[in-house]
Amino acid sequence: MGGSPARVYVARLAGLPVYDPNGDQVGKVRDVIVMLRQNDQPPRVLGLVVEVFARRRIFLPMTRVTSVDAGHVITTGLVNMRRFEQRPTEVLVLGELLDKTVTIRETDAQAVVFDLAMEQVRNRDWLLTKVAVTEGAKRFRRRGQTHVLDWADVSGIAQTEEGQGAAHMLAAFESMKAADLAGVLHELSAKRRKEIAAALPDERLADVLEELPEDDQVEILADLDTERAADVLEEMSPDDAADLIADLPTELAERLLTRMEPEEAEDVRRLLTYAERTAGGLMTSEPVILPADATVADALSQVRNAELTPALAAMIYVCRPPLETPTGRFIGIGHIQRLLREPPSALVSGILDTDLDGLRPDDSLQTVSKYLATYNLVAAPVLDDEGRLLGAVTVDDVLDHLLPEDWRESPPNEPDPPHEPGSPSDERDSLSHERESLSHEPQEVDRDAP
């Protein structure tokens, strides 16, 4: 590892790309795995948690890391694609050690951990040697005097802490997309999920909840106080909020609905009246709706809203007043691609697609899927019997229900390709059963060793 710096701060590794020797990206670093040791010895770094395709997290041993630089990590090119599962003796540095409250032995002062550094020693092992702390820091505020101390100079870092903060961990993952942060949370303990949820702003937490499996959603929301839970639900899209409330105990669900803003709660209650796997149960009640006298410029300004998903921003819905769902009579849809070809001053009413019959709220999931596929759409209007717009179904919500229930936490099933004995795939399989030892390299770290 001649190209690696002598000391690497772990928080700076979060999100770094991982490349093979040919320069092809393998994935991104999500955490560092260490094994704590007795007698204040620095923990041994076992490897990295790397996120590869389909949000699958794998274990990459440090013996297969050839370079750690400020902008990337390089591997030997051979990785085991088996899904990472944390073992009882292992600790996630970013997920579990950041924001720990520790005691500085020399002064007995309390401090909060905001980073840790690992170094490669003479036998080529990596050890977690330094702890960066803020003395006298308050939760969510990085104030106070900072120190970089030896591992043995602090105590309490290995102890379980109730009410552990999450500000520094979230800072390390600040640029991460909501779906990726949801993947990180899913891999953590229920205790850390609760603490991180408490530290996230309402809007960010709402985005993350929409990407989590149902069990995690219910667990996190049930741990929040009623007022905050209602605020978070208001930040979620109505269809996702309705799906989540439907999974809650009836008493809690009703209590949350009564604490929400009346208009927000009304949208959710209306969606709850539809069966889950129908157009009504899949739709959102907040598509982009415009009057007939709106211009192309008006429409484009609406779809520029950064909070819209790509599927919702791909289409506008033109209706008679009122423009809140359920609207007045539905007139037609405008495709974003067509809008971009027209003068900004043109009226949207002159470029609408009026030939498509909308979906009905009781249409089945199969009917919705066929409708989108038949007309090559990423979204479709849902109308009642009087021709009023109730909402829109988007392809992402359809896929959520077509995929297996645990698709957020399980990678796609992939058939093993046929191969001959001794092929590279045989070597990859063997990595999950034993650690190789080569005469010219240090012995592979045994994750089970004491």
Fold and architecture overview:
- There is one protein chain.
- Helix 8 (about 240-245) packs across helix 10.
- Helices cover about 30% and strands about 20% of the residues.
- With about 450 residues, the protein is α+β, with helices and mostly antiparallel strands.
- The strands form four sheets. Strands 2, 3, 4, 5, 6, 7 and 8 form a seven-stranded mixed beta sheet that branches. Strands 1, 9, 10, 11, 12 and 13 form a six-stranded antiparallel beta sheet that branches.
- The protein has helices spanning about 95, 165-170, 180-185, 190-200, 200-210, 215-225, 225-235, 240-245, 250-260, 260-270, 280, 295-305, 310-315, 335-340, 365-375, 395-400, 425-430, and strands at about 5-10, 15-20, 25-35, 45-50, 55-60, 65-70, 75, 90, 100-105, 110-120, 125-135, 145-150, 155, 290, 315-320, 330-335, 380-385, 390-395.
- The model is unreliable at about 410-445 (pLDDT under 50).
- The chain contains 17 helices and 18 strands.
- The chain starts with 6 loop residues before the first strand and ends in a 19-residue tail after the last helix.
- It is elongated and about 75 Å long.
Radius of gyration: 26 Å
Largest sheet: 7 strands, mixed
* Class of secondary structure makeup: alpha+beta
Poorly predicted tracts of residues: 411-445
| Helicity range | 25-40%
- What is the overall shape? elongated
Mean pLDDT reading: 87
Count all strands and give the number.
18
Give the DSSP E fraction (strand runs of 2 or more residues): 15-25%
Distance between the termini: 26 Å
Q: Output the number of helix runs.
A: 17
